[in-house]
Amino acid sequence: MSVDLQSLQKIPRHVALIMDGNGRWAQERGLSRIDGHTEGAQSVRAVLRAAAQAGVEFITVYAFSTENWKRPPKEVEGLMKLLVSSLDAYEQELHDSKIRLRIMGQFERLPLLVRRRLQKTLDATKDYTDHTFIIALSYGSRMEITDAARKIAEKVKAGELKPSDINEQTLSGHLYLPDVPDPELMIRTSGELRLSNFMLWQLSYAEFHITDTYWPDFREEQFFQALEAFNGRDRRYGGVKK
Length: 242
Ligand code: FPP
Hints:
Blueprint: E1 14-18, H1 22-28, H2 33-54, E2 58-65, H3 73-96, E3 99-105, H4 112-125, E4 131-139, H5 141-157, H6 168-172, E5 185-188, E6 207-210, H7 220-231
Parallel strand pairs: 1-2, 1-5, 2-4, 3-4, 5-6
Helix pairs in contact: 1-2, 2-3, 2-7, 3-4
The structure holds farnesyl diphosphate.
The site of farnesyl diphosphate has 17 residues, from helix 1, helix 2, strand 2 and helix 3.
């Protein structure tokens, strides 16, 4: 049965997604891994559309981890090419739904051509405030937290910050995208029960929705089902039920 969006009492402001299962989806069909990622790029588009429809402000997708550089060069190259062609394909939709693109991760490590293409869309959408589409690229959460600790240490060394003044907000304020609210919902496809070095700090209080569906099969309806499941959760943040 399809989900009635009007019946949902609460819509998370920020949904983070671990897009897993592209390889297995392709293998089951006798296709190449890149075919799986290509179909997965269509799911990203579907989720962007669904999120805009439901009123979710921030969508973050884990497209390429720091560990993914270890994949065969052909797959890494294929993923980079797919990223560029996907941006071309999404561009119109980003403008139509006023979606701002942002990148979270080691931007400098990406190939020059990819950086140039990304920069074009980053610039073209930077004034949109309704929705934000964040692509985690060459992203690793431990690296992000380590980088934040280093930046804080440098401020302490320079006398700009006292160790006794460091609190949770200080750490949050030195992550890659300090102005983005923490995700309230994290979706992982293809059934694995792992965080895989994804937004460890930001997901501290998030609800997790794990589905067996492979990412290329995760479309609008599956996203709405995740929102419905989120509505059934009782969020207490460590407190007691009122
Ligand atoms: C994990 O599946 C998926 C990835 C490492 C890449 C995800 C990338 C896309 C969906 C491409 C498009 C993204 C954007 C933002 C344009 P896997 O290969 O680990 O699958 P497996 O576990 O079944 O092998």
